[in-house]
Design brief:
Number of strands: 11
GO molecular function, one term: DNA-binding transcription factor activity
Pfam family, one: HTH_18
Shape: globular
Helix content: 25-40%
Strand order of the largest sheet: 1-2-8-3-6-9
Structural class: alpha+beta
Radius of gyration: 18 Å
Distance between the termini: 18 Å
Number of helices: 11
Keywords: DNA-binding, Transcription, Transcription regulation
CATH topology: Jelly Rolls
Largest sheet: 6 strands, antiparallel
Number of domains: 1
CATH superfamily: Jelly Rolls
Strand content: 15-25%
Low-confidence stretches: 249-280
Protein name: Helix-turn-helix transcriptional regulator
InterPro entries: AraC_XylS_family_regulators (IPR050204), Homeodomain-like_sf (IPR009057), HTH_AraC (IPR018060)
CATH architecture: Sandwich
CATH class: Mainly Beta
Amino acid sequence: MSISEDFATYVSPRFGSRDSTSRPSMVIVIGASDEIRLVTERGAYTGRCLLVSPNVSRSIEVNNATGLYSIQLDPASRLSQYLRRHVPGEKPVVDLSKKAEGFVLETSGAALGKPPGDPDIAAASQRVLDALFGDAVAFPATECRVQTVAGCLKARVPVRTDPRSLARLCGISESRLVHLFASVTGVSIREYLLWVKARKAVSMFASGKTLTEVAHATSFSDQAHLSRTFKRYFGLTPSFLSNPRLVRISNSATGCRAEPDCGRHCGHSSFRIADPAKLC
């Protein structure tokens, strides 16, 4: 997984069917060489490129030889907010296959052959997003108070949310902030913090930390909570992710700008499945 400021990229050269997962981010799922089939509670969807709405429980069915390339958008990002406004009808899954023909499929397919930690994985995802959603460039700047909350949670990764303190920082009431954040991002502040914790956990595994160290540093209540979250979000256990025989992980730092008084939050990490068959 390659983690950038506004999105994370998961790459697997081969991918078998997996149990249902659900996470608070919008996800673009691309079948590198064949169609993929997403099964949700509201039906099944088939295509080469599918956009999945936040918190939609789904399982993926693909031919084992089909590489999987998925981009998970940070709920507080400008693009995620743009898509929330422009995806019609609150659909759980939208087929983007026609828009993905040519450049998008070629770019995502080429990234499958990149070595772990290659910076072009994140760069490829940015090119894919630009090709699919070029109109988002003109989308107005994101709500600054939402960005302040997101920046602080990324910088501090607290044990739990403190809406009252965050509201004081933003200069609005607690109830107004809770409503504003949920309406803009589609997730609650608490859900967003859990997503931030999971992202940080991936980065810590990349630096060689143990499961115990990661659970403590990311403010999960215990290892079981961390494991449940990873299973729900990624369909993987933390022990699988931290096993170098099964997953190749690399980490490199990148700078990013945080909101005022929120410190710095940065980091770029990536992992690739060393033995994709182990996922099946």
